[in-house]
Design goal:
Elements lengths: L1 H20 L3 H39 L1 H14 L8 E4 L5 E4 L1 E3 L2 E3 L3 H13 L1
Antiparallel strand pairs: 1-2, 3-4
Helix pairs in contact: 1-2
Length: about 120
């Protein structure tokens, strides 16, 4: 991060020196002011977009839509429709970690979510 800060500071100083040496300091001043205003406009647009999406997600959360979507995805994952190539293995802790298992050049793990839930009942608790 420090190296990038130094690089951009050096780049700005080089641009200012080139503008002064070529006699185009007035054009440099105009560009700096215009692009500064453009940066402020971009920040305002991005902040507005974040507020809109944050508000929509808050509405979805309070209406229960996110809970219903989470239940749908959980059912699809438990049925093996999602993440078919995931293998569950026991770790040192008390949780199951899903990782793909490569056997004979093929990735296996159909029904791994069901196996993980069964394994969680037996060993992970």
């Amino acid at each position: 991060m420090l190296m990038m800060n130094r690089f951009f500071a050096l780049l700005a100083v080089a641009a200012i020196l080139c503008g002064i040496c070529t006699g185009r300091a007035d054009a440099l001043t105009n560009v700096v002011l215009e692009e500064g205003a453009g940066a402020i406009e971009l920040c305002i647009y991005l902040t507005g977009g974040m507020c809109v999406w944050g508000g929509l997600l808050r509405i979805a959360q309070r209406s229960g839509l996110t809970d219903r979507l989470a239940a749908c995805f959980a059912n699809a994952a438990a049925a093996g429709l999602l993440f078919q190539r995931i293998h569950c293995r026991q770790t040192e802790g008390s949780s199951c970690v899903s990782q793909p298992q490569k056997v004979g050049g093929k990735i296996h793990g159909n029904g791994a979510i069901r196996a993980c839930s069964r394994r969680k009942e037996r060993k992970c608790s």
